[in-house]
Amino acid sequence: MKKLWFLTLVAIGADVAFAQRADTTRNPLGNSPAAIAAGQRVYDQTCQSCHGASGQGDRGPALDTGTFTHGREDGDLFHTIREGVPASQMPPFRGLTDEQVWQLVSYIRSLAGPVAPPAARDAASSGGDPAAGEALFFGKSACASCHEVNGRGGVVGPDLSAAGQTPIDWLRRKILDPNSSASPPAGGRGGTVAPPQVVVAKTQDGREIRGVRRNEDTFSVQMVDASGQLHLFDKLTLAALRVENTSLMPGDYATKLTRREIDNLLAYLGKLGERDLTKTSAAAIPGGITFDRLLNADAEPHNWLMYWGNLRGTHFSALKQIDTTNAARLQLAWAFPMPGGSVLEATPLVVDGVMYTTQPGTVVALDARTGRQIWRYAREQKVRSPYEINPFNRGAAVLGQRLYVGTLDAALVALDVRTGRPLWERQVADSMLGYSLTSAPLIVKDKVLVGVTGGEFGARGFLDAYDAATGARLWRWYSVPAPGEPGHDTWLGESWKQGGSPMWLTGSYDPDLNLVYWTVGNPGPQIDRSARGDLDNLFSDSVVAIDPDTGQRKWHYQFTPNDGHDWDSCQDLVLVDRLWRGEMRKLLLHADRNGIFYVIDRTNGKLLSGTPFVHVNWTTGFDRNGRPIEVPGSNSSPGGSFFVYPTLGGGTNFQAPSYSPLTGWIYLAYAENGQRYVSAPVPFEAGRQYIGRAAGGGDGPGPRPGEPLRSAGIKALDPETGKMVWDFKIIQGSLTNGVLATAGDVVFGAIRDGNLVALDAKTGKHLWHAETGANMAASPMSYAVDGRQFVAISAG
What we know:
It contains eleven helices and 42 strands. It is α+β, with helices and mostly antiparallel strands. Helix 3 packs across helix 4 (98-111) and helix 5 (118-125) packs antiparallel against helix 9. The chain starts with 8 loop residues before the first strand and ends with a strand. The relative contact order is 0.10.
């Protein structure tokens, strides 16, 4: 029988240190031959195993292009070498002397030719017409078929958006004789072979595909052909693979172009100082994922096109190669290191054989079959609050040729999905006030929807919509109403200004009703209710239905009015059309942090049923309007509540549940436990935590007789009744983890202790488990490449 594979993404911890940059931005050694020769010796000992024997790139980026991600000045290079790049595979080299680092800078500069000062570049380019050169670049010379400038052009060759940093005579030589600097591969330190630039893959049917190599290992090669098409080959399936030490660039420009045209082309390139995001944001980039494909994501189960798997938030995989008869034979396929200081919580995307996964400030594109890196984007925070918490990133979104991701300093970034190069960046909010973007955006039509964190800081929550192509903000909906808006009277005095209620978790979308459904988090302050009054504090702890075209609220339902427990409602909203108590209904299913499983009519927000899925003692049920009936003494107070179930960590948390259309059940991880809620007054100070919880939680009685002991597990619930079908017990901390149901009738569950488990979806019977060696706080997902099903999980 065909061997089945299991894939895991493993995080490797790394210490992060901050240090001052070099006290000069100019290399004191310059481009002296002695410094370059000494730098090459240092390079051979420290750098070539990652960046290639001649700087052409391998595990690390190419260094022979003259452009650098983390700054172009000599001082920037010095800092990157000395301190490394946080949350990346680039380590610090603090053991090198300053002289050795400057020697390295000299050598790295030499790989692309010496960089001329601006005056020299301007003088060299003065003989040509930049406007005529631009027309040539995008016209007769066809440079743009392989190279891009600020988002316009191809992705086969190097990005020339900063070509002006390279001396004109060097550019002239590369244009007239593109093979002038080609050299045969050389052995690297530790047996590493320098990666080829151009390879030719011959398939079993005789086709030859010639292209630029992006990555390679013993068994696979990743390459881009002259049209920009990415190819991911298993070498064992190829008839042949050969290296060509020649450029894909035409070698006949000396005869095709006049000397004047060459001068014009060089004049245009000489003016390009750096990548200009004001121009890349306006670039028209055809192709890629259409919104129709996102709408019909269930039709391509081999892909995982968005955070929840589809727009309805079901987090279900229709793949069934792995089933109850063979799950026990799962094994590791590959692992990819994600070094950094934060816990991994991302759910990867997979689009046509390429995986995109994230961590704070970082996106990587991987060959989904082998785990080999195709590209990597890294961005340092521009602003870092000294009170920053929750340093996580949970994923990205794709539309067309753009990938969208949020940052901890509250920016929304669009990348070219083919290369990882930035296209635009929009500052969503001020991170010094407590805002950040930690979850995956949601694509709706031509818009990118993204919500913010900040509830712990009393930062007023909101949901934004941005134009997917240009990044222009289209609308904003605030979750705490201002004076004159519906719901404002549910806040005491001026407390609405610090009302929190963040909207940080990814929402769901119903195209038939044209409604976006989004959850809202806790009010501010979290525990001390005195500042905001004994009022509902809308729209905290709610689900809101919003018209994505206008940003107008259509309806809401509040799960926990006047919350003093930190039971934010940022959990999945599952949209299903199904028979419910004898009638076809458009339902919204939601297991809330407050311990209750809700079934809501998503056309109007009417509560249909609410059933505890863990022990709940804060409410006795619901009134005729669907409002929970609160048990006196269960909410926070200075004297403390009684021992309330669940804890502030909730009966479940943000990690994914899963709805199977085959069983009709919803599966989720849960935690059974309780605590007392004791408040204390807290002054508001912008940018600092605004909690209002008494130190130590106060003294008081524990659980009452007959109430459950602490436990956790994975459950199957029947939405028809809200009742448990089966329960698989697990051991973990206070927070729960995600699950995934598949068409193979297998439920995969992540456990915080590091185990990934496979259960029978119908019975809850254990089928298989594996220890990843790292704590898990993410949700599994599944995809397929070449007919083979994989399961992926971020761990560490």
